[in-house]
Amino acid sequence: MKIENPSSHYFDKKPLSSKIRQKGLSKFTYQLFDIAKKERDFLLIVLILIVLCALFAPYKPVAMWVGFALASYSAIANDSIQTLGTFIASNSHRKWWYLWIFIGLIFVGTVTYSWVMYEGDVSYQRLTSKGFSEAPQAFSFLQLFAPVALLVLTRIRIPVSTTFLLLNIFATDANALIGVVKKSFYGYFVSFFIAIVIWYLASLLFSKYLKVKPGKGWVVLQWITSGCLWSAWLMQDAANTAVFLPRSLNFIEFLIFTVFIFFGLGLLFYLKGDRLQKVVSEKAGITDVRAATLVDVVYVSILYYFMSFNNVPMSTTWVFIGLLGGRELAISLTKRKAKKRRKSLKKSFKFIKRDLSYAFLGLLISIILAISVNPVIKKAGKELWGNLLTLAADFLKNN
Fold first, then answer.
1. CA gyration radius for the chain?
2. Does some domain include residue 40?
3. pLDDT of res. 3
4. Residue 52 is assigned to a structural domain of this protein
5. Across 332-343, average pLDDT
6. Long-range contacts, stretch 101-106, CB < 8 angstroms, 24+ apart
7. pTM of the model
8. CB 167 within 8 A of CB 132
């Protein structure tokens, strides 16, 4: 009987992936291998960024700009589904740089106004609220790593809250974190039920009209509402990128801040929203310019409503997923045939559950990071967890 030499397997000409299959590894293990193979370049970039974070963390002047650069792209890429998602989806047939110039100029105008009016502050005073008014005096590896973690979550299409993930690690008061979470939960609750009412009525009243091709005026209206929404989002979430920087920027610092994000937006539009765009595109009828415009109008109205409360930061991600969840549910409820309605409701609840679970995952990751890196949050750890669990329980009970 011929005895096969085990070492001969190392010299056969079959590709490594075939050998792994032949070894009988589990399906999950092979999937991880396959993902790593497909995402090799991205994983290499992540590894390089981790090394850079470790190298530059001890040097504050360099660390703050490294953190800002990472936070700027990762935050806007992750949150782009909220403000630019419907805009990109309904204008996918247009040249990407048309969209970039339009959105980029609105960005420049919005942050310039804040910088001039609030004496160097580009966050519309979001970073002057209690717990966030002090600029970092030093940086740790985990503080710089937080935007890298956000990049990874964005890559796997998880729309987590950048406010929770990036702001909480710099909070100087544990109550500030509670305030952000409470306002964000309230934002989800309000947007969810407003969306149900508005889209239920809209679906009943305008369902026939939506079957007709939209007029050219809708395109103009959508660009206007998208610009207003983008500006309102910046007023809320520019703090997520500026948190690494001094609370008052001089002209050179402001120029670096503006130019970097402007060209980062160009990359985002070139990539057509990247991986997270699918979160918006898969929602019912969202590529229709009229549906996209209505989403923008309702969303920007809710953001301005919460901005009038106080200058406490909030998670716009939670507002947005509440809006989309309520919209999906309302559209399902308008289905006339019982069988189609049940099928549509099942699909809608699946979307709502998934998006909400991702949002809670982001909250959990952000709190773990905050406790790991922030001594103030760590000291208030037990009390903080208790308060957050109470908030979460009340939120889930009401929903």
1. 23
2. no
3. 47
4. no
5. 78
6. 102/223, 102/227, 103/226, 103/227, 103/230, 103/265, 103/269, 104/262, 104/265, 104/266, 106/227, 106/230, 106/231
7. 0.78
8. yes
> Which two three-digit tokens encode residue 222?
């959508």
> Is 30 part of a structural domain of the chain?
no
Question: Any idea which residue has 């809710």 for tokens?
Answer: 302
CB-based burial label for 364 (10 Å; 0-12, 13-18, 19+):
middle
Helix axes of 289-307 and 316-333: crossing angle, nearest 10 degrees:
130
Number of neighbouring beta carbons within 10 Å of residue 257: 21
17 belongs to a structural domain? no
- E strands in 203-338: none
CB contact set of 59 (below 8 Å; sequence gap of 6+): none
Q: Based on the structure, what is the number of domains in the chain?
A: 1
> Which tens digit of pLDDT belongs to each residue from 344-398?
888 888 888 888 888 888 788 877 877 777 777 777 666 666 666 676 666 666 6
**Domain extent for 229:** 61-398
